[in-house]
Request: fold
Amino acid sequence: MSIVQTIAALEAELAGTAARLVVVTKTHPVERLREAYAAGARLFGENRVQEMAAKQPVLPADVEWHQIGQLQTNKVKYLAAFVHTVQSVDSLRLLQELDKQAAKHQRVINGLLQFHIAQEETKTGLTLLEAEEILQSPAYQQLRHVRLTGVMGIATYTPDEAVVRAEFRQLRQYFEHLKAGYFADQPQFKELSMGMSADYALAVAEGSTLIRVGSAIFGSRT
Ligand SMILES: *Cc1c(COP(=O)(O)O)cnc(C)c1O
Reply:
């Protein structure tokens, strides 16, 4: 199937669910991003700051750029002018830097708290305790140019669906716990970013609002 056909098929699968598609465009040249755009995709995810910063001016202005990979604070300045959502918020320090750089551009950047849900040691992210420490800190409460809009997580890469499903459920419970405890009066805290090419169907069944799909659309990355 072509990029356009695959995106159309995915959108048809998502119709009637809570989930929207973030097309993960990392490593792919801008021509392929243009094809995805022509197919109606508007949410694009990249994991390298330089790559996103190079592609952004070339694509139409209504693309929502999502940073999905770990973000070093010294690189925030390269995406602060345009990034819509940083899905990989893993520290108070990063939130503070996002706030500082977004203020320079008089804008607000959305953030998702990234949780560690996988069994693999290598997958980064916060624990619930760490997230609550951030949310309770006076420093967080002073931020005006960054706003948290939900949570994100990466499940274990395994064919064992029970494992993946349990991890997505765990993430959903974190989301609901934080929503009730810290964001009850803030409707913008609504995103549950979970699900990739291999496991998005399970994620959608578990209530995902953002699936991040790359290789199922573009083929494997070389
Ligand atoms: C690369 C990446 C994806 C997309 O992975 P695919 O398996 O190609 O769909 C999703 N989320 C994150 C955080 C990624 O780094």
Observations:
- The domain at 3-218 is CATH 3.20.20.10 (TIM Barrel).
- Strands lie at 20-24, 43-46, 64-67, 85-89, 109-115, 146-153, 191-193, 210-213.
- The radius of gyration is 17 Å.
- The pocket of pyridoxal-5'-phosphate is lined by residues 24, 26, 47, 68-69, 154, 196-198, 212-216 (CB under 6 Å).
